[in-house]
TrEMBL record:
<dbReference type="Pfam" id="PF16653">
    <property type="entry name" value="Sacchrp_dh_C"/>
</dbReference>
<dbReference type="InterPro" id="IPR005097">
    <property type="entry name" value="Sacchrp_dh_NADP-bd"/>
</dbReference>
<dbReference type="InterPro" id="IPR036291">
    <property type="entry name" value="NAD(P)-bd_dom_sf"/>
</dbReference>
<protein>
    <submittedName>
        <fullName>Saccharopine dehydrogenase family protein</fullName>
    </submittedName>
</protein>
<feature type="domain" description="Saccharopine dehydrogenase NADP binding">
    <location>
        <begin position="4"/>
        <end position="133"/>
    </location>
</feature>
<feature type="domain" description="Saccharopine dehydrogenase-like C-terminal">
    <location>
        <begin position="137"/>
        <end position="386"/>
    </location>
</feature>
<dbReference type="InterPro" id="IPR032095">
    <property type="entry name" value="Sacchrp_dh-like_C"/>
</dbReference>
<dbReference type="Pfam" id="PF03435">
    <property type="entry name" value="Sacchrp_dh_NADP"/>
</dbReference>
Length: 405
């Protein structure tokens, strides 16, 4: 069995640590390191296996290399923040360790997350005979694997994909983001973007939206908003014949109201302002006063539904399919002390790591999820807590086309 170092002890780090610990035949030794060691210790105390804990500043390459040299793991699982992706990739190259993450790099001073920063590391990883797997969460991650599965088994040509992410959970608080508020707010205050006929089309933030009737009665009718999301950047390259890719996410009217007010008063800005002689980024300050997403776990009830609606051709006939997962917040909390948002990210992170460590997915270089065989990953989703279904996609595509053709 193998050794992993997990970096990051937030909501996702907690789930990854729990899930890796449940698979000792693959994850023989687990080191959990983060900026604040006490958070690692708190997670380790919940788990019935030895978890080694360390503190590390993942922005510091030399410090991370020293940690990696001390433990000599087979893989580093990065579930810190997107800002740490490049320093952690550098550290992995220097220490000779494989790399995996769940979100693409974003410069702190420029909210333009893109694979353009990480893809150029491909040749360095090839030369070092190391592998980097990018985006092994749910979206990106499982959504990319759903696409690879559809391409392999359901279609000869996929023409359109609509990725739809619904969180129908309720935490009972007036306002809270369900993962890192800074990353979440940066994502949804940005312009919307979708890919069509070979180019990106831009919309105003949250401009395009519609009601969508989900395939589960506890999710039912929700307003979905078109956003840019990072998996489209790799999928538009890797899905052959693809004509359109869109990404949609649900938000409640209450969430939108709060967000509008915060934005109107300037609290979502990332440029620092001078406050009594100190430079403070409003969004970072906002993060400090909002509820810690980790504290929502015991409060959140309800379900998530994330999946992809496909339209394309099979054996000369037009076909539609919808592949999705339903996840229950309270069941996740009972299992790993986290709500479904962290769970749906952390389980695929464990599975991606398992694919690498068991060499089911093994290549030198930097890769996205859809570049590998989806079958063993899809099997593991069923096995480790994120079962999926494939249903006729026509009624779902028709709803989208009726409003936003
Ligand atoms: P949290 O904010 O809850 O946790 C982040 C953790 O990283 C904290 O423990 C934090 O430490 C640690 N960290 C931050 N900076 C450093 C640093 N310089 N060195 C060491 N540790 C550091 O975030 P989440 O757990 O919610 O998210 C983790 C990642 O997962 C993010 O990249 C996020 O974008 C991604 N994600 C991906 C999704 C997907 O579906 N693909 C969905 C949701 C999230 P401290 O507490 O001390 O600050």
């Amino acid at each position: 069995s193998k050794k992993v170092v997990i970096i990051g002890a937030g909501g996702v780090g907690r789930v990854v640590a729990h899930k890796c610990a449940q698979v000792p035949e693959v994850f023989g030794e687990i080191v959990l390191a983060s900026r604040t060691k006490a958070k690692c210790d708190a997670i380790a105390a919940e788990i019935d296996r030895e978890i080694i804990t360390e503190s590390v500043d993942a922005d510091n390459v030399a410090e991370t290399v020293a940690l990696l040299k001390k433990y000599q793991p087979d893989l580093l699982i990065n579930v810190a923040l997107p800002y740490q992706d490049l320093t952690l990739m550098e550290a992995c190259l220097e220490a000779g360790v494989d790399y995996m993450d769940t979100a693409n790099y974003e410069p702190k001073d420029d909210p333009r997350f893109s694979y353009e920063y990480q893809w150029p590391y491909h040749n360095k990883f090839v030369d070092a005979k190391r592998m980097a797997l990018l985006g092994s969460g749910f979206d990106p991650g499982v959504t990319n694997v759903f696409c690879a599965y559809a391409q392999k088994h359901l279609f000869d040509e996929i023409h359109t994909v609509d990725i739809i992410d619904a969180n129908a959970g309720d935490h009972g608080l007036p306002f809270a983001t369900n993962f890192n508020p800074e990353i979440n707010i940066r994502e949804i205050t940005a312009k919307g973007r979708y890919w069509q006929e070979g180019e990106w089309k831009e919309t105003e933030p949250m401009e395009v939206h519609q009601t969508f009737n989900f395939p589960h009665p506890e999710v039912a009718d929700r307003e979905i908003y078109l956003l840019y999301h990072e998996e489209m950047e790799s999928l538009c390259k890797h899905l052959k014949g693809i004509k359109r890719l869109r990404f949609w996410m649900t938000f409640s009217p209450n969430y939108i109201n709060h967000l509008n007010v915060l934005q109107n008063v300037g609290m979502t800005a990332i440029e620092p302002v001078d406050f009594q002689g100190q430079q403070i980024a409003p969004l970072e300050f906002l993060k400090a006063v909002l509820p810690d997403p980790g504290s929502l776990g015991p409060l959140t009830k309800g379900k998530t539904c994330i999946g992809c609606v496909f339209d394309g051709i099979k054996d000369g006939e037009r076909k539609q399919y919808y592949i999705y997962n339903i996840c229950d917040h309270q069941e996740c909390y009972a299992e790993v002390k986290s709500q479904a948002i962290s769970y749906t990210t952390g389980v695929p992170a464990m599975i991606g790591a398992k694919m690498m460590l068991t060499e089911k997915w093994k290549k030198d270089g930097v890769f996205n999820m859809e570049q590998f065989d989806p079958d063993p990953f899809m099997d593991d989703l069923n096995k480790y807590g994120l079962p999926w279904q494939v249903v006729d996609g026509k009624p779902f595509l028709d709803q989208l086309l009726a409003k936003n053709p």
